[in-house]
């Protein structure tokens, strides 16, 4: 039967046993009189049913209750439960009790075995389902193969690995998608396994995916044999190692690049265990410095360090261990009988107590750089000496030239005064002189006056090139405003629109700045004389990211093709009959700006005015 007694409550089982027993006794009483015999026949079936439904104790209850009722209703004297000690009474009751106990025990044993069988069946089914799930749902590819390589079964993971459906796989041979270069080894190991030389084998191989790309896998093949020892079938377990192969290749490439980078940069990377005081170089970089091995001790390092650099290096190392400084040091090493320079940097790994437990760093051979630096230092020292000597010589020559220019200009004044004096005396002594003679005297006077102006120009240049520069705060706006007001007062008939940007300040020599602005503004005033609406501006502009002071006019301007002569002494870009002058003002301005370490430039166009801009390399706050 399919039911189990434990599926029902004890009360229900005992109630069913009682009801069935009572019904069976009632039915026996109704069918035949007591003297008819066969009193316990109906109870046998009821006891079996009670035991089947309610279990062993329900069967015993039915047996005991049935015997009680039978003896009550069917054995004389009726209703007294008095059993005469006759052979027949004892035999019938004893035999019935023994028979029913055997039946109930047999049924209970059958039920127990049935329960065990059901539990075993469930366990077998669960194990079978788990094995099936392991095969089908496993993360690795699994398959069973015939000895000739045909598939018995294959899981979906295996199919996905090579890109075929299960139906396609079952119609193929593993040779169909094994890489040709790996097939020979696979077939060789398979033959050894079938021949009994080995029980299983594993190796890395390549599959050709349905889409054409290569898939790396790790295959394990095991042989299952029949009880007689003959080969039965093969079990294949396939693990996708494509990602790990790519990672391995990337690591190899990275390692190769790292080794190349170490070689190109001349770096030796290392790690030190501070507990064992052992150094280990990384990525084979020890060969760059020509070290004998990749691992070495602190004593090996100390033996290489130059004695004069050991104390400095040891002190910095102790400070770095305590976290008081960074370990960045250049020192000398004695290697191969030669002195080399090395640059070493290190960082420390610390534990939870902030105690250094290991160090990682790089060391670079900087011998060539240090030799180059020493050569540069020697060259610099030699160059400085040569520059100093040349500067002294130039200064002496310059001073001599300035003194000579001053002396020449001063000495020329005496003959000029004589020439000019005699010319005036002749004119005064002979007032009747006229015609060509008078013209000659006037030309001599004009020439001597011109010569005097040239000599004054030379003296001015000499004056501005001599003496010590005294930098002080100068209000450039105030200087420009005052000079333009003087020009306007001297020529009230001219209509000139001039503007000065306020708050223009410089740190310069006041006297030289006065002369500079005098020359630039006088030029602007002079060369704008023939312009109907003359405009002069003094302002600050930014030229190529640098602030400059500018004097701008809209006067005659000049051709930039001739600008090279603009700042040379006594060179003029206009004819004397157009504009007066000696050509000394801009040369003087250039000399003043250069003495301040600045730059003076000009931009112009004929008939469109000119812009002169300059820098002095100093402000009041600088």
Task: Provide a descriptive summary of the structure in words.
The protein contains 15 helices and 18 strands. The chain is α+β, with helices and mostly antiparallel strands and 622 residues long. The protein has 5 domains: 5-116, no CATH class; 138-240, 2-Layer Sandwich (Beta-Lactamase), CATH 3.30.450.20; 265-365, PAS domain (Beta-Lactamase); 386-460, no CATH class; 468-615, Heat Shock Protein 90 (2-Layer Sandwich), CATH 3.30.565. The protein has a 6-stranded antiparallel β-sheet, sandwiched between helices. A hairpin with a 2-residue loop joins strand 9 (327-335) and strand 10. Helix 11 packs antiparallel against helix 12 and helix 13 packs across helix 14. 20% of the residues are buried. The model has no long low-confidence stretch (mean pLDDT 78).
Report the span from N to C terminus.
113 Å
Number of domains: 5
Specify the number of helices.
15
The CATH class designation of the largest domain is Alpha Beta
Q: Can you tell me the CATH superfamily of the largest domain?
A: Histidine kinase-like ATPase, C-terminal domain
Instruction: Using the coordinates shown, work out and report the CATH topology of the largest domain.
Output: Heat Shock Protein 90
- Tell me the β content: 15-25%
Helix/strand/pairing category: alpha+beta
Strand order of the largest sheet: 8-7-6-11-10-9
Count all strands and give the number. Answer: 18
Radius of gyration: 62 Å
CATH architecture of the largest domain: 2-Layer Sandwich
Output mean pLDDT: 78
Question: Main sheet, how many strands, which sense, barrel?
Answer: 6 strands, antiparallel
Task: Catalogue the unreliable spans.
Answer: none
Helix proportion range? 40-55%
Q: Specify the overall morphology.
A: elongated
């Amino acid at each position: 039967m399919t039911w189990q007694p434990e599926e029902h409550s004890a009360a229900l089982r005992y109630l069913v046993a009682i009801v069935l027993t009572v019904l069976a006794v009632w039915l026996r009483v109704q069918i035949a009189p007591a003297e008819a015999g066969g009193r316990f026949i109906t109870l046998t079936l009821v006891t079996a049913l009670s035991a089947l439904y309610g279990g062993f104790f329900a069967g015993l209850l039915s047996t005991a209750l049935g015997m009680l009722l039978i003896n009550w209703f069917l054995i004389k004297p009726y209703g007294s439960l008095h059993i005469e000690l006759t052979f027949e009474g004892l035999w019938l009751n004893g035999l019935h009790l023994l028979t029913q106990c055997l039946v109930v025990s047999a049924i209970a044993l059958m039920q127990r075995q049935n329960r065990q069988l059901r539990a075993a069946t469930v366990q077998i089914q669960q194990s079978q389902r788990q094995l099936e799930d392991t095969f089908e749902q496993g993360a690795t590819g699994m398959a069973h193969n015939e000895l000739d390589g045909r598939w018995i079964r294959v899981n979906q993971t295996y199919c996905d690995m090579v890109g075929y459906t299960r139906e396609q796989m079952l119609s193929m041979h593993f040779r169909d998608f094994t890489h040709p270069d790996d097939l020979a080894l696979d077939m060789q190991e398979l033959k050894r396994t079938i021949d009994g030389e080995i029980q299983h084998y594993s190796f890395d191989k390549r599959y050709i995916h349905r889409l054409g790309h290569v898939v790396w896998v790790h295959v394990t093949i095991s042989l299952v044999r029949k009880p007689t020892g003959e080969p039965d079938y093969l079990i294949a377990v396939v693990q996708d190692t494509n990602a790990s192969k790519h990672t391995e290749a990337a690591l190899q490439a990275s390692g190769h690049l790292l080794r190349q980078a170490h070689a190109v940069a001349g770096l030796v990377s290392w790690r030190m265990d501070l507990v064992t005081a052992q150094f280990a170089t990384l990525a084979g970089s020890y060969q760059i410095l020509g070290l004998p091995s990749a691992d070495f001790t602190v004593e090996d390092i100390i033996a290489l360090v130059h004695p004069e650099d050991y104390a400095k290096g040891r002190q910095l190392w102790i400070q770095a261990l305590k976290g008081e400084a960074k370990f960045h040091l250049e020192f000398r090493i004695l290697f191969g009988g030669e002195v080399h320079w090395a640059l070493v940097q290190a960082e420390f790994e610390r534990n939870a107590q902030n105690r250094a437990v290991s160090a990682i760093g790089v060391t670079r051979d900087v011998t060539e750089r240090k030799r180059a630096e020493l050569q540069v230092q020697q060259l610099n020292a030699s160059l400085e000496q040569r520059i100093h000597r040349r500067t002294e010589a130039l200064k002496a020559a310059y001073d001599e030239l300035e003194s000579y220019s001053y002396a020449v200009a001063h000495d020329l004044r005496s003959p000029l005064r004589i020439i000019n004096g005699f010319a005036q005396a002749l004119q005064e002594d002979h007032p009747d002189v006229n015609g060509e003679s008078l013209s000659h005297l006037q030309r001599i006077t004009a020439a001597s006056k011109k010569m005097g102006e040239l000599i004054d120009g030379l003296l001015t240049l000499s004056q501005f090139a001599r003496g010590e520069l005294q930098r002080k705060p100068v209000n450039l706006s105030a200087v420009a405003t005052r000079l333009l007001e003087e020009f306007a007062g001297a020529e009230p008939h001219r209509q000139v629109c001039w503007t000065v940007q306020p708050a223009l300040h410089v740190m310069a020599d006041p006297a030289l700045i006065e002369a500079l602005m005098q020359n630039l503004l006088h030029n602007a005033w002079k060369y704008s004389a023939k312009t109907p609406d003359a405009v002069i501006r003094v302002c600050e502009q930014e030229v190529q990211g640098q602030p400059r002071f500018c004097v701008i006019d809209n006067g005659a301007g000049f051709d930039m093709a001739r600008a090279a002569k603009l700042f040379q002494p006594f060179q003029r870009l206009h004819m004397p009959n157009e504009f007066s002058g000696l050509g000394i003002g801009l040369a003087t301005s250039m000399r003043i700006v250069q003495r301040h370490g600045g730059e003076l430039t000009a931009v112009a166009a004929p008939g469109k005015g000119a812009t002169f801009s300059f820098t002095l390399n100093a402000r009041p706050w600088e």
